[in-house]
Design goal:
single chain, alpha+beta, 20 helices, 24 strands
């Protein structure tokens, strides 16, 4: 096919062309340029070979793991595929995605309403994880990362999805909802010359949709839409034919298919394109929607005044361009993830490309062994010539066999298999596993008698090797979940219902609109120790806690049966999150509420039983400690705020911290001992009174009499000797040593 070149003027940015078809044509040119970059760099061929091997057709597409086939010129070999490649890919993906990362919502402001909306956003995230199968899309994108070196997660607002809220003459009117798509590098095109993936300002991506639904939505283009087929669109984005044209795998693209490829151009606002652009098209001549629309010229009646009175006439109004704002603000909502990036390029790379040749070596060894057994696995019987024994006489059992000749027939085995073949196959497998750090524990073949801690360490080492893949997956989760909530903030104009979990996992239906999540800013993914991503690591971590009484046997059993560490760590994690939030408020100078004043004395009111101050409730944001708090944990954390020198200069922050610590000390002192024990805490440290025994003084020696560490003889019962305090020396004295010697006490 002849390569299609850009037809846009050299002084006009292609994405700003007002004509929709011209812009779609330029988008097709960019799609083909992206595909050509994949082909020239060799990535396209690597991706095809990787998919073919994963599907069981071998890297070259000449075998089939579902059956043994004859090969060679005359069928003399038995082709066999042992698909170790797919097994290792699955293990790497499972190692990355089996343990979901901890997702936490961050409020946009520190007010109570925003904090409550962030909590609701976390519950809403769980709801959309169930309803939209977000985890499944994230798994697909991670699988594409491992197979192809890059995976994409695309998010879209579908106006025809969601719950119906009214109806019209065409049927139910829905409020719209989020749609997620996991795409490969062949489904998403971008500028191949970009410095990095974060520099992208536009993407073109595709998805399969029902063309009859499109025809119903765009009746003016019905004939053009129904005339399109997947087979016709194969060559839209490629100069060389089908993107997944695999030797052993053919995608079914019948002319009678109800689906077509829907391409979409997303361009964020930039100096060259201030309003951005969203363009949906089937090809460069069938454009469905565009945020830039050319209003054609038309004639309108104009009344003019003349000497004889008003005169009617026609005036032609020139065509104009109507520009709608880009609907996704400044986001592409196209999230790319890759285990590694090719240096100086925006394309991804995966270590599993290196396993394709090793898989061919494994298939070669399997074919040699299978062919040898197939050719000589059955015994041959050697008899002297003229023995007068036929094949029919040898079949069956309990037969009397007679023969002519002096010697008995002799059976010979014909399978001669070199031990180097099996050793070569094992070497290929070992090299492949070492390349991607899938050790014996990860592959399910641990050594006999290996302790659980050693198994946890080996598994953690494998996770560490794939840390870049893990971080790419976590970043994809973070950006994807944040994108869902941002789309709801922007488009959820109608009331919608979500089944969310509240406190103590109590489920309830709750209505919400975009204003109910307006205080949400983003999701963050909290990092987790690699050892705690494995069941063996979690169990080894929990065993000391069980022995020390920090967790109950029920919690340990729940961890062992479900593999979930979250219930065990829920209270400590929530408690620490509260303390961290209160430290953030202290840094802003926000401390305790104002004290309630006694109306009779005008002094701060206190509780008559405990002597603890009573505070006012003016509805503002303050830190409000409770008698049930873990003060032995919180107080050192509060005081750590003052460890920063610049904070000590802020009087408001210092007063807030010291006032809070003083109040917490009072609450800690009156906390019931039973509550302290339930919280597995530390009792309040009582100060030492006059009758308390004096702690022993550290051993001190007389200068010049004893060596360091030895103590001088002190009479029993004698009061401890107070050492004189040396004078403070001022920086800048002419002779500090002379000043110190002059002021030293007499010996």
């Amino acid at each position: 096919m002849e390569e299609k070149k850009s037809q846009s003027p050299s002084d006009v940015y292609w994405a700003s062309l007002p004509d929709s078809k011209a812009c779609a044509s330029e988008a097709v040119v960019r799609i083909r340029r992206h595909r050509e970059a994949l082909r020239v760099s060799g990535l396209a061929e690597r991706m095809r070979r990787s998919l073919s091997a994963w599907l069981g057709y071998g890297p070259r597409g000449d075998v089939d793991s579902s059956r043994a086939s004859a090969g060679g010129e005359s069928g003399e070999t038995l082709e066999l595929n042992v698909n170790q490649y797919a097994a290792m890919v699955t293990q790497a993906v499972a190692l990355t995605t089996n343990n979901k990362p901890s997702v936490k919502a961050i409020a946009g402001n520190s007010d109570f309403e925003s904090l409550g909306q962030a909590t609701f956003a976390e519950a809403l995230n769980d709801y959309y994880d169930r309803e939209l199968a977000v985890s499944d899309r994230e798994y697909e994108a991670t699988l594409k990362m491992v197979l192809f070196g890059e995976g994409w997660l695309l998010e879209d607002w579908d106006e025809n999805a969601g719950q119906p809220y009214t109806s019209d003459e065409k049927g139910a009117v829905r409020g719209g909802d989020v749609r997620l798509y996991a795409c490969s590098a062949f489904d998403v095109a971008h500028d191949p010359d970009a410095q990095d993936i974060e520099s992208l300002t536009w993407v073109c991506w595709r998805r399969r949709v029902n063309k009859w639904d499109l025809a119903a939505r765009f009746p003016a283009l019905k004939d053009d839409i129904l005339a399109e087929t997947l087979a016709q669109q194969r060559e839209l984005g490629s100069n060389t034919g089908d993107d997944w044209d695999l030797p052993g795998f053919r995608r079914h693209e019948s002319a009678d298919s109800d689906c077509v490829w829907l391409w979409e151009l997303r361009h964020v606002p930039t100096p060259a394109l201030p309003h951005g652009r969203l363009l949906r098209f089937l090809n460069d001549s069938v454009v469905l929607t565009d945020t830039v629309r050319v209003v054609p010229a038309h004639a309108e009646v104009v009344i003019r005044m003349s000497a004889d009175g008003p005169v009617e006439g026609e005036e032609f109004v020139p065509e104009s361009v109507e520009v709608l704002p880009y609907p996704y603000a400044d986001e592409l909502y196209a999230f790319s993830a890759a285990p590694e990036r090719i240096p100086g390029s925006s394309f991804g790379h995966t270590a599993f490309f290196d396993l394709l040749s090793l898989q061919e070596g494994i298939d070669l060894s399997a074919t040699i062994m299978a062919s040898a057994i197939n050719a000589g696995g059955m015994q041959n019987l050697y008899v002297p010539r003229g023995a007068n024994i036929t094949v029919k006489k040898l079949t069956g059992a309990l037969n009397v066999i007679e023969f002519d000749g002096p010697t008995l027939p002799e059976a010979k085995e014909n399978v001669a298999l070199s031990p180097h073949v099996a050793a070569f196959a094992q070497s290929m497998l070992d090299w492949a596993q070492r390349r991607v750090s899938l050790n014996e524990v990860v592959t399910g073949n641990p050594s006999a008698g290996m302790p659980a801690q050693a198994m946890a360490l080996l598994r953690a080492q494998a996770v560490e090797f794939h840390s870049r893949l893990q971080s790419a997956y976590e970043r994809l989760v973070q950006r994807g979940r944040t994108g869902i909530l941002k789309l709801l903030q922007q488009y959820a104009d109608t009331e919608r219902v979500a089944l969310v979990a509240g406190k103590a996992n109590s489920w309830a239906l709750r209505e919400f609109k975009k204003k109910d999540v307006a205080g949400f800013d983003r999701f963050v993914v909290e990092p987790v120790n690699p050892a705690l991503k494995t069941l063996a690591g979690k169990v080894s971590f929990a065993e000391p806690l069980l022995k020390g009484g920090a967790i109950t046997p029920q919690q340990y059993l729940q961890l062992f049966t479900t593999g979930r560490l979250e219930p065990v760590l829920k209270f400590p994690a929530d408690n620490q999150a509260r303390i961290e939030r209160e430290k953030e408020l202290l840094l802003q100078g926000i401390g305790l509420p104002p004290p309630r004043l006694d109306p009779l004395t005008g002094q701060p009111a206190v509780d008559p039983m405990s002597g603890i101050p009573i505070f006012e409730d003016d509805g503002q944001l303050y830190i409000r400690p409770l008698i049930s708090d873990t003060f032995w944990v919180a107080i050192p954390e509060y005081l750590s705020v003052l460890s920063m020198p610049e904070v000590r200069q802020n009087v408001r922050v210092v007063d807030a911290v010291l006032g809070l610590v003083d109040y917490c000390m009072k609450l800690w002192k009156v906390q019931p001992p039973a509550m302290t024990a339930v919280l597995r805490g530390v009792p309040f440290p009582e100060p030492m009174g006059p009758g308390s025994p004096t702690p022993p003084a550290p051993p001190m020696g007389t200068v010049g009499d004893e060596s360091p560490g030895e103590s001088a003889d002190v009479p029993e019962g004698a009061p401890p000797t107070k050492m004189p305090v040396p004078p403070r020396l001022k920086v800048g004295d002419d002779n500090l040593r002379a000043t110190a010697e002059a002021n030293a006490p007499p010996q």
